[in-house]
Protein backbone atom coordinates (compact mmCIF):
# COMPACT_ATOMS: atom_id res chain seq x y z
CA UNK A 1 0.00 0.00 0.00
CA UNK A 2 1.29 3.45 -0.95
CA UNK A 3 0.24 4.81 2.45
CA UNK A 4 2.52 2.31 4.23
CA UNK A 5 5.55 3.38 2.16
CA UNK A 6 4.88 7.06 2.90
CA UNK A 7 4.64 6.48 6.68
CA UNK A 8 7.98 4.69 6.67
CA UNK A 9 9.95 6.88 4.27
CA UNK A 10 8.58 10.43 3.87
CA UNK A 11 10.18 13.20 6.00
CA UNK A 12 8.60 13.33 9.48
CA UNK A 13 7.88 17.07 9.38
CA UNK A 14 6.03 16.74 6.08
CA UNK A 15 4.10 13.69 7.33
CA UNK A 16 3.08 15.44 10.54
CA UNK A 17 1.82 18.44 8.58
CA UNK A 18 -0.11 16.19 6.19
CA UNK A 19 -1.76 14.15 8.95
CA UNK A 20 -2.04 16.71 11.75
CA UNK A 21 -3.52 19.72 9.96
CA UNK A 22 -6.67 17.83 8.86
CA UNK A 23 -6.82 16.19 12.30
CA UNK A 24 -6.51 19.57 14.02
CA UNK A 25 -9.32 20.92 11.85
CA UNK A 26 -11.36 17.83 12.74
CA UNK A 27 -10.75 18.23 16.47
CA UNK A 28 -11.45 21.97 16.39
CA UNK A 29 -14.68 21.26 14.56
CA UNK A 30 -15.48 18.54 17.12
CA UNK A 31 -14.93 21.08 19.91
CA UNK A 32 -17.13 23.63 18.15
CA UNK A 33 -20.13 21.31 18.54
CA UNK A 34 -20.09 22.05 22.27
CA UNK A 35 -18.58 25.55 22.10
CA UNK A 36 -21.10 26.89 19.57
CA UNK A 37 -23.98 25.38 21.55
CA UNK A 38 -22.80 27.23 24.66
CA UNK A 39 -22.31 30.47 22.75
CA UNK A 40 -25.89 30.40 21.44
CA UNK A 41 -27.38 29.13 24.71
CA UNK A 42 -25.65 31.87 26.70
CA UNK A 43 -27.33 34.50 24.50
CA UNK A 44 -30.92 33.20 25.00
CA UNK A 45 -32.91 36.22 26.29
CA UNK A 46 -33.68 36.28 30.06
CA UNK A 47 -32.52 32.71 30.81
CA UNK A 48 -28.97 32.68 29.29
CA UNK A 49 -26.98 32.48 32.55
CA UNK A 50 -29.17 29.71 34.03
CA UNK A 51 -29.32 27.85 30.71
CA UNK A 52 -25.51 27.83 30.30
CA UNK A 53 -25.23 26.65 33.90
CA UNK A 54 -27.64 23.82 33.02
CA UNK A 55 -25.32 22.84 30.19
CA UNK A 56 -22.39 23.05 32.61
CA UNK A 57 -24.10 20.47 34.79
CA UNK A 58 -24.32 18.09 31.80
CA UNK A 59 -20.60 18.33 31.04
CA UNK A 60 -19.63 15.18 32.98
CA UNK A 61 -22.18 13.17 30.93
CA UNK A 62 -20.90 14.64 27.65
CA UNK A 63 -17.37 13.71 28.71
CA UNK A 64 -18.41 10.13 29.52
CA UNK A 65 -19.84 9.80 25.98
CA UNK A 66 -16.55 11.15 24.57
CA UNK A 67 -14.61 8.70 26.78
CA UNK A 68 -16.33 5.70 25.20
CA UNK A 69 -15.92 7.22 21.72
CA UNK A 70 -12.17 7.53 22.36
CA UNK A 71 -11.99 4.02 23.83
CA UNK A 72 -13.19 2.57 20.54
CA UNK A 73 -12.00 5.22 18.04
CA UNK A 74 -8.47 5.77 19.31
CA UNK A 75 -8.05 2.10 20.25
CA UNK A 76 -9.08 0.88 16.79
CA UNK A 77 -7.08 3.49 14.86
CA UNK A 78 -3.83 3.01 16.79
CA UNK A 79 -4.12 -0.76 16.37
CA UNK A 80 -4.75 -0.32 12.63
CA UNK A 81 -1.51 1.68 12.37
CA UNK A 82 0.47 -0.91 14.33
CA UNK A 83 -1.00 -3.81 12.29
CA UNK A 84 -0.11 -2.05 9.02
CA UNK A 85 3.41 -1.41 10.32
CA UNK A 86 3.71 -5.13 11.00
CA UNK A 87 2.35 -5.94 7.51
CA UNK A 88 -0.87 -7.49 8.87
CA UNK A 89 -3.50 -5.95 6.56
CA UNK A 90 -6.16 -8.60 7.30
CA UNK A 91 -6.43 -7.70 11.00
CA UNK A 92 -6.27 -4.00 10.13
CA UNK A 93 -9.40 -4.46 7.98
CA UNK A 94 -11.20 -6.49 10.64
CA UNK A 95 -10.64 -3.64 13.12
CA UNK A 96 -12.94 -1.38 11.03
CA UNK A 97 -15.97 -3.67 11.47
CA UNK A 98 -15.20 -4.39 15.11
CA UNK A 99 -15.00 -0.65 15.74
CA UNK A 100 -18.45 -0.10 14.20
CA UNK A 101 -20.08 -2.89 16.23
CA UNK A 102 -18.50 -1.75 19.50
CA UNK A 103 -19.61 1.85 18.83
CA UNK A 104 -23.24 0.82 18.34
CA UNK A 105 -23.45 -1.59 21.30
CA UNK A 106 -21.76 0.75 23.78
CA UNK A 107 -23.80 3.77 22.61
CA UNK A 108 -27.13 2.01 23.10
CA UNK A 109 -26.17 1.06 26.66
CA UNK A 110 -25.18 4.68 27.44
CA UNK A 111 -28.47 6.00 26.00
CA UNK A 112 -30.66 3.66 28.03
CA UNK A 113 -28.79 4.13 31.32
CA UNK A 114 -28.55 7.90 30.85
CA UNK A 115 -32.24 8.43 30.07
CA UNK A 116 -33.54 6.09 32.79
CA UNK A 117 -31.37 7.52 35.57
CA UNK A 118 -30.92 11.03 34.14
CA UNK A 119 -32.46 13.13 36.91
CA UNK A 120 -30.51 11.41 39.70
CA UNK A 121 -27.27 11.61 37.72
CA UNK A 122 -27.72 15.34 37.02
CA UNK A 123 -28.37 16.11 40.70
CA UNK A 124 -25.26 14.13 41.59
CA UNK A 125 -23.32 16.24 39.05
CA UNK A 126 -24.36 19.55 40.64
CA UNK A 127 -27.83 20.41 39.30
CA UNK A 128 -29.99 22.63 41.52
CA UNK A 129 -33.78 23.11 41.38
CA UNK A 130 -33.16 26.24 39.27
CA UNK A 131 -30.92 24.53 36.69
CA UNK A 132 -32.31 20.96 36.53
CA UNK A 133 -34.95 21.82 33.90
CA UNK A 134 -32.33 23.23 31.50
CA UNK A 135 -29.95 20.34 32.09
CA UNK A 136 -32.65 17.73 31.40
CA UNK A 137 -33.97 19.57 28.34
CA UNK A 138 -30.50 19.45 26.79
CA UNK A 139 -29.00 16.11 27.81
CA UNK A 140 -31.97 13.80 27.10
CA UNK A 141 -31.89 14.74 23.42
CA UNK A 142 -28.08 14.34 23.32
CA UNK A 143 -28.38 10.91 24.96
CA UNK A 144 -30.99 9.81 22.41
CA UNK A 145 -28.45 10.49 19.64
CA UNK A 146 -25.39 8.98 21.34
CA UNK A 147 -25.01 6.22 18.74
CA UNK A 148 -24.38 8.79 15.99
CA UNK A 149 -21.95 10.72 18.21
CA UNK A 150 -19.76 7.70 19.00
CA UNK A 151 -19.99 6.20 15.49
CA UNK A 152 -18.99 9.51 13.88
CA UNK A 153 -15.98 9.88 16.19
CA UNK A 154 -14.82 6.28 15.67
CA UNK A 155 -15.13 6.31 11.89
CA UNK A 156 -13.47 9.71 11.53
CA UNK A 157 -10.51 8.32 13.44
CA UNK A 158 -10.31 5.17 11.31
CA UNK A 159 -10.61 7.20 8.07
CA UNK A 160 -7.47 9.10 9.17
CA UNK A 161 -5.75 5.79 9.94
CA UNK A 162 -6.89 4.57 6.52
CA UNK A 163 -4.78 7.30 4.93
CA UNK A 164 -7.52 9.80 4.12
CA UNK A 165 -7.19 12.57 6.73
CA UNK A 166 -8.55 15.25 4.36
CA UNK A 167 -11.89 13.47 3.95
CA UNK A 168 -12.19 13.04 7.72
CA UNK A 169 -11.70 16.78 8.16
CA UNK A 170 -14.19 17.66 5.40
CA UNK A 171 -16.85 15.45 6.99
CA UNK A 172 -16.34 17.12 10.37
CA UNK A 173 -16.41 20.64 8.90
CA UNK A 174 -19.72 19.97 7.11
CA UNK A 175 -21.16 18.52 10.33
CA UNK A 176 -20.06 21.57 12.31
CA UNK A 177 -21.49 24.04 9.78
CA UNK A 178 -24.76 22.10 9.91
CA UNK A 179 -24.74 22.45 13.70
CA UNK A 180 -24.08 26.20 13.61
CA UNK A 181 -26.84 26.92 11.09
CA UNK A 182 -29.37 24.71 12.90
CA UNK A 183 -28.41 26.27 16.28
CA UNK A 184 -29.31 29.73 15.01
CA UNK A 185 -32.52 28.57 13.29
CA UNK A 186 -33.87 26.26 16.01
CA UNK A 187 -32.95 28.45 19.02
CA UNK A 188 -33.90 31.88 17.74
CA UNK A 189 -36.25 31.39 14.74
CA UNK A 190 -38.30 28.48 16.08
CA UNK A 191 -37.79 29.54 19.72
CA UNK A 192 -36.86 26.02 20.83
CA UNK A 193 -34.26 27.39 23.26
CA UNK A 194 -31.87 24.88 24.80
CA UNK A 195 -33.72 21.95 23.19
CA UNK A 196 -33.00 23.47 19.79
CA UNK A 197 -29.28 23.44 20.54
CA UNK A 198 -29.41 19.73 21.41
CA UNK A 199 -31.45 18.86 18.29
CA UNK A 200 -28.96 20.78 16.15
CA UNK A 201 -26.04 18.85 17.65
CA UNK A 202 -27.62 15.42 17.15
CA UNK A 203 -28.72 16.21 13.58
CA UNK A 204 -25.19 17.27 12.62
CA UNK A 205 -23.77 14.10 14.20
CA UNK A 206 -26.18 12.01 12.10
CA UNK A 207 -24.81 13.74 8.98
CA UNK A 208 -21.17 12.99 9.90
CA UNK A 209 -21.84 9.37 10.96
CA UNK A 210 -23.78 8.46 7.81
CA UNK A 211 -21.20 10.11 5.52
CA UNK A 212 -18.29 8.33 7.23
CA UNK A 213 -20.16 5.00 7.09
CA UNK A 214 -20.83 5.39 3.36
CA UNK A 215 -17.09 5.87 2.75
CA UNK A 216 -16.55 2.26 3.82
CA UNK A 217 -19.78 0.76 2.51
CA UNK A 218 -19.20 2.12 -1.02
CA UNK A 219 -15.71 0.61 -1.05
CA UNK A 220 -13.78 3.86 -1.52
CA UNK A 221 -11.51 3.10 1.42
CA UNK A 222 -7.98 1.64 1.24
CA UNK A 223 -8.83 -0.85 3.97
CA UNK A 224 -11.92 -2.66 2.72
CA UNK A 225 -14.99 -3.05 4.92
CA UNK A 226 -16.52 -6.53 5.01
CA UNK A 227 -19.76 -7.53 6.75
CA UNK A 228 -17.99 -10.47 8.39
CA UNK A 229 -15.72 -8.04 10.24
CA UNK A 230 -18.74 -6.74 12.19
CA UNK A 231 -18.59 -9.96 14.22
CA UNK A 232 -16.55 -9.16 17.31
CA UNK A 233 -13.14 -10.83 17.50
CA UNK A 234 -12.08 -11.32 21.13
CA UNK A 235 -8.38 -10.68 20.48
CA UNK A 236 -9.05 -7.52 18.44
CA UNK A 237 -11.54 -6.17 21.00
CA UNK A 238 -8.93 -6.75 23.71
CA UNK A 239 -6.34 -4.91 21.61
CA UNK A 240 -8.75 -1.98 21.04
CA UNK A 241 -9.53 -1.73 24.76
CA UNK A 242 -5.86 -2.09 25.75
CA UNK A 243 -4.77 0.88 23.62
CA UNK A 244 -7.99 2.89 23.99
CA UNK A 245 -8.01 2.51 27.76
CA UNK A 246 -5.52 5.37 28.29
CA UNK A 247 -7.57 8.13 26.58
CA UNK A 248 -10.74 6.50 27.96
CA UNK A 249 -9.39 6.66 31.50
CA UNK A 250 -8.35 10.26 30.96
CA UNK A 251 -11.83 11.28 29.81
CA UNK A 252 -13.59 9.31 32.56
CA UNK A 253 -11.26 10.98 35.03
CA UNK A 254 -12.14 14.34 33.48
CA UNK A 255 -15.82 13.53 33.98
CA UNK A 256 -15.20 12.65 37.63
CA UNK A 257 -13.28 15.90 38.10
CA UNK A 258 -16.09 17.86 36.43
CA UNK A 259 -18.64 16.33 38.81
CA UNK A 260 -16.49 17.04 41.89
CA UNK A 261 -15.67 20.48 40.53
CA UNK A 262 -19.35 21.30 39.86
CA UNK A 263 -20.23 20.47 43.46
CA UNK A 264 -17.30 22.54 44.79
CA UNK A 265 -18.29 25.43 42.51
CA UNK A 266 -21.89 25.21 43.68
CA UNK A 267 -20.76 25.23 47.34
CA UNK A 268 -18.27 28.12 47.09
CA UNK A 269 -19.72 30.18 44.21
CA UNK A 270 -23.33 29.13 43.59
CA UNK A 271 -25.01 28.20 40.28
CA UNK A 272 -23.29 30.98 38.33
CA UNK A 273 -19.86 29.55 39.17
CA UNK A 274 -20.86 26.33 37.34
CA UNK A 275 -21.93 28.50 34.40
CA UNK A 276 -18.53 30.22 34.51
CA UNK A 277 -16.79 26.83 34.41
CA UNK A 278 -18.86 25.88 31.34
CA UNK A 279 -17.49 29.00 29.64
CA UNK A 280 -13.92 28.46 30.89
CA UNK A 281 -13.88 24.81 29.79
CA UNK A 282 -15.09 25.89 26.33
CA UNK A 283 -12.24 28.39 26.07
CA UNK A 284 -9.80 25.72 27.29
CA UNK A 285 -11.21 23.30 24.69
CA UNK A 286 -10.59 25.78 21.86
CA UNK A 287 -6.87 25.90 22.71
CA UNK A 288 -6.39 22.24 23.65
CA UNK A 289 -8.17 20.66 20.67
CA UNK A 290 -5.32 21.50 18.25
CA UNK A 291 -3.03 19.52 20.58
CA UNK A 292 -5.37 16.53 20.47
CA UNK A 293 -5.36 16.95 16.69
CA UNK A 294 -1.56 16.84 16.73
CA UNK A 295 -1.83 13.65 18.76
CA UNK A 296 -4.21 12.07 16.27
CA UNK A 297 -2.03 13.11 13.35
CA UNK A 298 1.12 11.73 14.95
CA UNK A 299 -0.44 8.43 16.09
CA UNK A 300 -0.26 6.55 12.76
CA UNK A 301 3.26 7.91 12.15
CA UNK A 302 4.54 6.93 15.61
CA UNK A 303 2.66 3.60 15.62
CA UNK A 304 3.81 2.56 12.14
CA UNK A 305 7.47 3.45 12.63
CA UNK A 306 7.57 1.87 16.08
CA UNK A 307 6.04 -1.31 14.62
CA UNK A 308 8.65 -1.21 11.83
CA UNK A 309 11.43 -0.67 14.44
CA UNK A 310 12.32 2.75 13.01
CA UNK A 311 12.61 4.27 16.47
CA UNK A 312 14.40 7.45 15.42
CA UNK A 313 11.46 8.41 13.18
CA UNK A 314 8.83 7.74 15.85
CA UNK A 315 10.86 9.79 18.37
CA UNK A 316 11.20 12.67 15.93
CA UNK A 317 7.43 12.69 15.32
CA UNK A 318 6.89 13.13 19.05
CA UNK A 319 9.48 15.89 19.45
CA UNK A 320 8.04 17.98 16.61
CA UNK A 321 4.46 17.58 17.88
CA UNK A 322 5.54 18.55 21.43
CA UNK A 323 7.27 21.69 20.16
CA UNK A 324 4.25 22.66 18.06
CA UNK A 325 1.97 22.21 21.09
CA UNK A 326 4.11 24.59 23.17
CA UNK A 327 3.87 27.27 20.47
CA UNK A 328 0.07 26.89 20.08
CA UNK A 329 -0.66 26.87 23.82
CA UNK A 330 1.63 29.82 24.56
CA UNK A 331 -0.33 31.83 21.96
CA UNK A 332 -3.57 30.82 23.69
CA UNK A 333 -2.18 31.78 27.09
CA UNK A 334 -1.24 35.28 25.86
CA UNK A 335 -4.78 35.79 24.53
CA UNK A 336 -6.41 34.66 27.79
CA UNK A 337 -4.20 36.86 29.96
CA UNK A 338 -4.46 40.01 27.81
CA UNK A 339 -8.08 40.03 26.59
CA UNK A 340 -10.24 37.70 28.72
CA UNK A 341 -13.31 40.00 28.59
CA UNK A 342 -13.51 39.71 24.81
CA UNK A 343 -13.19 35.91 24.86
CA UNK A 344 -15.67 35.41 27.74
CA UNK A 345 -18.08 37.91 26.15
CA UNK A 346 -18.63 35.54 23.22
CA UNK A 347 -20.48 33.21 25.63
CA UNK A 348 -22.40 35.55 27.93
CA UNK A 349 -22.57 39.24 28.76
CA UNK A 350 -24.34 38.95 32.11
CA UNK A 351 -22.24 41.20 34.44
CA UNK A 352 -22.11 38.79 37.41
CA UNK A 353 -21.30 35.78 35.25
CA UNK A 354 -18.71 37.80 33.32
CA UNK A 355 -16.83 38.83 36.50
CA UNK A 356 -16.65 35.25 37.80
CA UNK A 357 -15.60 33.88 34.39
CA UNK A 358 -12.85 36.45 33.69
CA UNK A 359 -11.21 35.91 37.09
CA UNK A 360 -11.57 32.13 36.74
CA UNK A 361 -10.17 31.76 33.24
CA UNK A 362 -7.00 33.73 34.02
CA UNK A 363 -6.18 31.47 36.98
CA UNK A 364 -7.46 28.18 35.50
CA UNK A 365 -5.30 28.41 32.34
CA UNK A 366 -2.17 29.76 34.05
CA UNK A 367 -0.01 26.75 33.07
CA UNK A 368 -1.35 26.47 29.52
CA UNK A 369 2.07 26.88 27.77
CA UNK A 370 3.62 23.74 29.33
CA UNK A 371 0.79 21.20 29.43
CA UNK A 372 1.36 20.22 25.79
CA UNK A 373 4.38 18.24 27.01
CA UNK A 374 2.12 16.21 29.30
CA UNK A 375 -0.55 15.65 26.63
CA UNK A 376 1.75 14.77 23.70
CA UNK A 377 3.97 12.72 26.03
CA UNK A 378 1.20 10.40 27.19
CA UNK A 379 0.03 10.11 23.56
CA UNK A 380 3.52 9.01 22.50
CA UNK A 381 3.64 6.28 25.15
CA UNK A 382 0.12 5.19 24.12
CA UNK A 383 1.02 5.16 20.41
CA UNK A 384 3.90 2.70 20.95
CA UNK A 385 1.49 0.34 22.72
CA UNK A 386 2.55 0.90 26.36
CA UNK A 387 -0.99 1.19 27.69
CA UNK A 388 -0.29 0.97 31.45
CA UNK A 389 2.32 3.74 31.52
CA UNK A 390 0.16 5.87 29.22
CA UNK A 391 -2.82 5.42 31.52
CA UNK A 392 -0.79 6.49 34.55
CA UNK A 393 0.42 9.63 32.76
CA UNK A 394 -3.10 10.41 31.54
CA UNK A 395 -4.52 10.06 35.04
CA UNK A 396 -1.86 12.30 36.62
CA UNK A 397 -3.39 15.63 35.54
CA UNK A 398 -7.03 14.65 36.00
CA UNK A 399 -7.18 12.35 39.01
CA UNK A 400 -4.05 11.58 40.98
CA UNK A 401 -3.10 15.24 41.37
CA UNK A 402 -6.20 17.29 40.51
CA UNK A 403 -8.91 15.73 42.69
CA UNK A 404 -7.00 16.20 45.98
CA UNK A 405 -6.35 19.83 44.95
CA UNK A 406 -10.05 20.51 44.31
CA UNK A 407 -10.94 18.97 47.66
CA UNK A 408 -8.26 20.82 49.68
CA UNK A 409 -7.55 24.23 48.13
CA UNK A 410 -11.10 25.72 48.22
CA UNK A 411 -11.08 25.25 52.02
CA UNK A 412 -8.29 27.83 52.17
CA UNK A 413 -8.98 30.04 49.13
CA UNK A 414 -12.73 29.66 48.51
CA UNK A 415 -13.82 29.83 44.84
CA UNK A 416 -10.28 30.80 43.76
CA UNK A 417 -9.13 27.50 45.25
CA UNK A 418 -11.23 25.65 42.67
CA UNK A 419 -9.69 27.66 39.83
CA UNK A 420 -6.07 27.32 41.05
CA UNK A 421 -6.32 23.53 41.44
CA UNK A 422 -5.86 23.00 37.69
CA UNK A 423 -2.60 24.94 37.15
CA UNK A 424 -1.00 23.35 40.24
CA UNK A 425 -1.90 19.91 38.88
CA UNK A 426 -0.74 20.86 35.36
CA UNK A 427 2.70 21.90 36.59
CA UNK A 428 3.35 18.77 38.66
CA UNK A 429 2.02 16.42 35.93
CA UNK A 430 4.24 18.03 33.28
CA UNK A 431 7.38 17.61 35.43
CA UNK A 432 6.63 13.92 36.08
CA UNK A 433 5.74 13.22 32.42
CA UNK A 434 8.98 14.87 31.25
CA UNK A 435 11.02 12.58 33.54
CA UNK A 436 9.26 9.45 32.19
CA UNK A 437 9.71 10.63 28.59
CA UNK A 438 13.44 11.29 28.91
CA UNK A 439 13.94 7.76 30.24
CA UNK A 440 11.74 6.26 27.48
CA UNK A 441 13.42 8.11 24.62
CA UNK A 442 16.90 7.20 25.87
CA UNK A 443 15.96 3.49 25.80
CA UNK A 444 15.37 3.71 22.03
CA UNK A 445 18.89 5.02 21.47
CA UNK A 446 20.15 1.73 22.89
CA UNK A 447 17.77 -0.24 20.61
CA UNK A 448 18.91 1.73 17.56
CA UNK A 449 22.54 0.99 18.38
CA UNK A 450 21.76 -2.73 18.71
CA UNK A 451 20.00 -2.72 15.30
CA UNK A 452 22.98 -0.95 13.67
CA UNK A 453 25.41 -3.45 15.21
CA UNK A 454 23.41 -6.36 13.80
CA UNK A 455 23.39 -4.77 10.33
CA UNK A 456 27.18 -4.28 10.45
CA UNK A 457 27.70 -7.84 11.66
From TrEMBL:
The chain crosses the membrane at residues 16-36, 48-74, 95-117, 137-155, 167-190, 196-216, 236-260, 272-295, 316-336, 356-377, 389-413, 419-438. One of its GO terms (molecular function) is antiporter activity. Keywords: Antibiotic resistance, Cell membrane, Membrane, Transmembrane, Transmembrane helix, Transport. One of its GO terms (biological process) is response to antibiotic. It is a multi-pass membrane protein. The keyword Cell membrane applies. Its main location: membrane. One of its GO terms (cellular component) is plasma membrane. It is found in: Cell membrane. It comes from the Bacteria. It holds the Pfam family MatE. Belongs to the multi antimicrobial extrusion (MATE) (TC 2.A.66.1) family. MepA subfamily. This is Multidrug export protein MepA.
Amino acid sequence: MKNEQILGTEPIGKLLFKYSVPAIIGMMVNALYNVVDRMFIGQIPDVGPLAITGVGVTMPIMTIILAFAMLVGVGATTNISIKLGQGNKEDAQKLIGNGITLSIVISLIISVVGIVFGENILKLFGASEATLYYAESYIYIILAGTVFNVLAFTLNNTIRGDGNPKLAAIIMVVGCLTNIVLDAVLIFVFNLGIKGAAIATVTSQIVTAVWALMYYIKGKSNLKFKKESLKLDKSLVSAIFAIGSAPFAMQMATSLVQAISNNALKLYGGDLAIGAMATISSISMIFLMPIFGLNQGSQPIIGFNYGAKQYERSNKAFKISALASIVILTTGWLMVQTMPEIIVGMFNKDPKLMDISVNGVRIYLLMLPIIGISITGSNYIQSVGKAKVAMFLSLLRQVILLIPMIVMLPKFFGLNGVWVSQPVSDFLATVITAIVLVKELRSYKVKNEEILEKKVA
